[in-house]
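Q: Could you predict the 3D structure of Aldehyde dehydrogenase?
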Amino acid sequence: MASLKYTPKQQLTEIHSRLSQTFREGRTLPLGYRRKQLLQVARLVQENSDAIMASLKADIGRHPFEATLPELRPIVSSALHAVENLDKWSSPEKPQVEAWRSGWDTTIFKVPKGTVVSISPWNFPWVLTILPLIGAIAAGCTCLIKPSEHAQASAALMAKLIPQYLDPDAYAVCLGAVEETTHVLSLKWDHIFYTGSTSVGRIIAEAAAKQLTPVTLELGGQSPVFVDGDSTNIEIAAKRILWGKQQNAGQVCVAPNHVFVQEQHQSALVEAFRKAYDSFWPMGPLDSSSEMARMVNARHYERNKSLLSRTKGKVVIGGQTGQDLRIEPAIVTGVKLDDPLMEEEIFGPILPIIPVANVDAAISHIQSGSTPLVIYVFTENEETKNKFVERTQSGQLILNETFAQVAVYEIPFGGQGQSGYGSYLGKYSFDAFTHQRGYINVPADARTEGFMQGRYPPYSAPALAFFSQALKAKIPDA
Ligand code: NAD
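A: Sure. Here are the predicted structure tokens for Aldehyde dehydrogenase:
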């Protein structure tokens, strides 16, 4: 495994000054400059795809398929999408105004927030670091990226490639762990974009509050699934849930954490999982042919093993552990809400099934927990769909699919409540790093000034009567 050489603190302070200076000089403002840098991001991935895949293999044992689909492909397509849409996203907006202000120039300018930092986790080390960077570049910001020290090969490769492809005066990489990140957080940024755990999210928000820096927090949580056995195709549901769960060995912020199903459908669902399991891994998930990702380190491996040994539910499929930090996806039935499996986000390949009386019971359990990043619902029943739309809260609500929504950059990706705040992907990434600057230019001509005349002291009764008209306007019935 590559050994990371952490960036000295003094150098981080210098990088911060350099990025701030570049921003102040306005070098990242021209759209042509931004386009060129975005194209370089796409080129970086295309020209180094083998090396990037090797870094993912070294860090998490990722198969090229699971490296390409959720990491490399979205970076290239997001960079090109930003290039195509940059004119539209960055164009000033002219809002509709009240008739009496029609002579004023009223505009919303889309200005870059400034010099920003993005701190990212190990589980999808490339996409979760580079997609925020794409948003920052598109918005015209200068940006420091801080990949996770737990995905060393990826972080080392980023530190080597980013200066080769992007303008080093505007974009830089910080290598390091808690000490280096703490130093980075002590500097003054114009936006902090953080992806990672809820506990570190609190530390980030606190550090940002000291300088009143705006923050995006992309956190995790226990994303639940409801399988409506009365109306859904259970076999398709099982395949899609298991596919989403086994990605990256379950170390995914949007992984299905647990499944609610009506009691009478639990055994049919287990049989459907068994069928999907056998078709995904005819030789078993730990066979060398399966190339399932492994747990990132011994701590997460032991944590998941301990969960499997402590659960009061029944492990009905999988759950064996193997060489090289690998754990078979495990389906556990009859799990209760106070089970050890439900203490916190599982972040591993274990999938508990919680039998419930009906959809209302599932919704009530979801309502009583912290707000998840995503809720997955498998149903064809309109009333059930509507109940989830109207009575639950989450970052996203995904019907009849899991995991794939992270590639849908036409909708915002982000949490609510405990799962974070702010969002990104596509135009929302541009927005995350953009300040909407209100602007008016009021004509200093005689006609406008004549209209303004009544507001100046000494105040007069007729002028007050004129400005009080709104107080007498008829309020329509609801
Ligand atoms: P991690 O340990 O790699 O930490 C993330 C980043 O925070 C790293 O860059 C790390 O150096 C930094 N960090 C850690 N401790 C710090 C501290 N005390 N002060 C300052 N910085 C610190 O990753 P993780 O937190 O284990 O990531 C897993 C979590 O991230 C899960 O909860 C997962 O659900 C969540 N996640 C969320 C998303 C999302 O998009 N919402 C995506 C991926 C992961």
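Q: Anything worth pointing out?
A: The chain has a mean pLDDT of 96.
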